[in-house]
Design a protein that fits this description.
The structure is a single chain. By secondary structure, this protein is mainly alpha-helical. It has a domain at about 10-45. The chain contains 4 helices and 2 strands. The protein has helices spanning about 10-15, 20, 65-75, 100-105, and strands at about 35, 45. It has a two-stranded antiparallel ribbon. The radius of gyration is 17 Å and the shape is elongated.
């Protein structure tokens, strides 16, 4: 009687990367089957699951650890600076500014 290991283990980073799943034939093109979270942090989600702007840590809610990520990136721009975090640019204008803070605050403690 043989025992199969059933698969190959993956790191957390690999499990939070779309290509890990698309390489295994998961279909991210059919909506609303599978998709990655808005900030591209976390595990694949079913299309109907709620995605919350400001969830930078992949905990499926906006909490203090997300605020720590946001505040570290505050007022940085898309030039190569140590604090730039593209995920914190919630309104995609190339800078993390009061507009992003408004979006973040509107989702504070949502889950």
């Amino acid at each position: 009687m043989g025992v199969s290991d059933g698969g190959t283990g993956k790191t957390t980073l690999e499990m939070q990367t779309e290509s890990t799943f698309s390489d295994a034939n998961w279909d991210f093109t059919v909506v609303p089957l599978w998709r990655m979270p808005f900030q591209a942090v976390g595990y694949p989600m079913l299309g109907w699951q709620k995605d919350i702007p400001g969830d930078f840590t992949g905990r499926y809610g906006v909490y203090m650890d997300d605020f720590a990520v946001f505040s570290n990136a505050w007022l940085s721009d898309d030039s190569p600076t140590v604090n730039w975090n593209e995920h914190c640019d919630l309104h995609s204008n190339g800078v993390i500014d009061p507009g992003d803070l408004i979006i973040f605050a509107n989702h504070w403690l949502c889950n």
